[in-house]
Amino acid sequence: MKKAKVVKVFESNGDVVTFRYPRYADHEALMVMRNSLVKQKAFIGQRKVTLNEARGHMLSSLRNIKEKTSVVLVVEIDGRVVGKASVSKVPKSRIYKEPKASYHRRVRIAEYWLGIFLASSAQGRGIGKKLMQAVIDEAKNVLKVRRIFLGVFAANHRARSLYHKMGFVQMGRKGKGKKKHHGVFRYGLCMAMSLQ
Fold it and tell me: What is the mean pLDDT of residues 137-164?
């Protein structure tokens, strides 16, 4: 198995936590974790992925890393994959896809988006904050990113608080809370952080 570049290793609650670049073999563990978060209704508009889709996503991620259009970090606790964070360049065509959504109009200059997810066993331990800082640092160094955007449920106060502490500010809102997500009216927020 090919070794992946390790970015950070530290201890949390007696466990060894490692942030590293992904390997192809990570696709199955990430699929299982993502599907469990979809089942917990943690994502807007996301669905479970199949093993073949997970393989395709991983191949795409590895290609984007090589082409320097993304940085992706995987989180391991004692050798078990429990999370992932990425900063990825978004084709401008994706930014304009929903012209009626207020936050797409406000962030048309957006090129890089941050995505993060952690298994519930890794949450509440400061790992998410360290992971965000590590992936942002990698994005600054590797991609020369000057501004990063992310999307979050407005009702996800815990995540919004973390993002605010990290330096993200709200840029706009998607929707008016009229669309049901798993039986609940919710809307998303766009947040941004300048790295200059």
Answer: 88
